[in-house]
Amino acid sequence: MSTSINLPSNKFLNCTVCGTTFKFLKHLRMHCHQNHPTLSDVCGQCGRAFRTPGDLETHQRDHVRKRPHLCQECGRVFTDRRNMKKHEKVHVKNPYYCKEHRKSFKTQEDFAKHLISHNIPKPHVCNVCGTAFQNNTLLKRHKLTHTRIRDHVCTHCSKAFIQKFHLKAHMIECVTKNNWLHSSRILIWELPPAP
């Protein structure tokens, strides 16, 4: 990479670490090598210093708007492949999938926690479908899915659920939504008439 750069007479390069000002790129580079040895690669356009040539190259793409990594889903462009791959996960609802249990997980951490459950003994077996569980409570909860009896009913919208914990999760959303609708109507009704 060339160290010569033509700057306008009123333009200077600043060290991004300590703020020292330089007229010539070669002086800024020399300064960084001597005073900030971990930041040896310097951008010729803005004077920002980087630890590795790769970091400098990624940064320089911003100056020339060279963003070669394109998300196939939405068309957004990225300066490096890593950021594009990280972004692409927003388009996948649950990217981590357990084939054994046919379950999906949003994060790698949740998936890893689930995989640990593969090694835990499951002595409680459903006599209807053969699915095994770690304890009797989980087996009892599972057996309810075979009866299809929906005993747990939401008092706000009458939607029914097989399991109580599904009703509780639903009610948080249902009550919040209904209270907001109710309170927004009250606010509208309580507004004074327009003059």
TrEMBL record:
Keywords: Metal-binding, Nucleus, Repeat, Zinc, Zinc-finger. SUPFAM superfamilies: beta-beta-alpha zinc fingers. Its main location: nucleus. Transmembrane segments: none annotated. The keyword Repeat applies. PROSITE patterns: ZINC_FINGER_C2H2_1, ZINC_FINGER_C2H2_2. GO terms for cellular component: nucleus. Signal peptide: none annotated. It comes from the Eukaryota. One of its GO terms (molecular function) is RNA polymerase II cis-regulatory region sequence-specific DNA binding. The keyword Acetylation does not apply. Residues 41-68, 69-96, 96-123, 124-151 form the C2H2-type domain. It is found in: Nucleus. Belongs to the snail C2H2-type zinc-finger protein family. PANTHER family: PROTEIN ESCARGOT (PTHR24388:SF54), ZINC FINGER PROTEIN (PTHR24388). This is C2H2-type domain-containing protein.
